[in-house]
């Protein structure tokens, strides 16, 4: 609607072979990799492998699993995956966040970058698995500090508890994955409503999701139901889709472009060229708008994700 | 008559595991889906079933009949159905009082699932009592009964996790489970009516 400056995305899906290639691509990389850490934690099998100077974190031994986080040790600040860079585009919607919530720690890429960019912002990172925190600290250089703390809890439980407190967030990043996908109880309308309840006025939610299955349609209608129109960012080179939603008015593309000029130079050290991402911002639905909304009563996400 | 009893035991097995599987879904929004949530649910179901076996065996000592068998199913249905309305407020109440999600989920699983599951646990031993005609065949009858009711459990688990959650909302599934129990109850009561026309319902010499 607001998005006059660019073309709507094509409505058809990628052909299957391309999807498979896209999903498997990160793996081709790990074929010659050396596993330097393997741990069966309470929640998944955590694997860290190394190829040259690049370390990657995975949550399963299955060879078809995607990497959760990768880091090039020779350039630790550079973000390796498009999804991480796309998540950072949320900063165009909320230029100076003071309170930030990151759900799902992984290797800590996002919270560390946010901590560097906004040293005065308070950042809470929610992680269910203590073993993931250990791995992030040991291999990915993650460290807690005064402003950045990790809370070891189920995100749904944390969110419900936080709702009864006074804490509000300017930016909430949803990036919780297990070996399969996002846990089903973190995909429902009720969870998103609770998350919205934690937002300060005009606060922003950035959610990392995939665009490879029927679930794409259901997630899209669920976000639409809770937040109304949102910015949908789809990468041409990966299967990721990032949702950027606001509790309030979505800023116009002109406003985003203007903020990009200020933010752009600050993001170059993370390997992010903001201008590459601006054309991705779309508000045109490219999903089946009749797809059933996911709720606590109805959330067969993992089944839908395999269809 | 035995065929009907086996069919009803199958239904009981089906409903028990379907409910157990839904239990994880019911609790997840408040207590997460960690391993301890499943631990709580499985603990409570095992505990309830074990008590149910005990009570069912005890009940079978006094004038066992298809009518009473049918009443067990009806009571289970009546205790199961309110979950549709009570689960949410019960979990809110616990969530506000118990900080630790381990004990929160254990308490919630207790409040929500003990009553219907204890009653459903009574089905198996009571079926054995209705089916056994002599001590000689008692082992074989019990074996067959476990076979049938556990097959019911297997199918209940599969149907719920593969298909029901894809087709229906959780409360719809719970309602259907309660209806299945009511239907089982009606079947038992009607067959007891027919059988009572032709004399004594069950051989009185059963297990001693």
The low-confidence parts of chain B are 198-208
Give the name of the CATH superfamily of chain B.
MFS general substrate transporter like domains
Order of helices and strands of chain A: HEEEEHEHEHEHEHEHEEHHH
Characterize the overall form of chain A.
globular
Fraction of residues of chain A in helices? 25-40%
- How much of the sequence of chain A is in beta strands? 15-25%
Structural class estimated from helices and strands of chain B: mainly alpha
At CATH level 2, the architecture of chain B is Up-down Bundle
Average of per-residue pLDDT values of chain A: 86
Tell me about this structure.
The complex is a heterodimer of chains A (307) and B (208). Chain A is α/β, with parallel strands linked by helices. Chain A has ten helices and eleven strands. In chain A, the strands form two sheets. Chain A has a seven-stranded mixed sheet, with helices on both faces. In chain A, strands 1-2-3-4 form a four-stranded antiparallel sheet, covered by helices on one side. In chain A, helix 5 packs across helix 6 and helix 6 (189-197) packs parallel to helix 7 (215-227). Mean pLDDT of chain A is 86; it is low at 1-12. By secondary structure, chain B is mostly helical. Chain B has one domain (2-197): MFS general substrate transporter like domains (Growth Hormone, Chain: A), CATH 1.20.1250.20. The longest helix of chain B has 33 residues, at 135-167. Chain B is elongated, with a radius of gyration of 18 Å. Classes of the chains: A alpha/beta (307), B mainly alpha (208). Chains A and B meet through helix 5 of A and helix 1 and helix 7 of B.
Summarize the structure.
The complex is a heterodimer of chains A (about 300) and B (about 210). Chain A is an alpha/beta fold and about 300 residues long. In chain A, about 30% of the residues lie in helices and about 20% in strands.
Entry keywords:
heterodimer, A: 307 residues, alpha/beta, Rossmann fold, seven-stranded mixed beta sheet, four-stranded antiparallel beta sheet, 31% helix, 22% strand, globular, disordered N terminus, B: 208 residues, mainly alpha, Growth Hormone, Chain: A, 8 helices, 85% helix, elongated, disordered C terminus
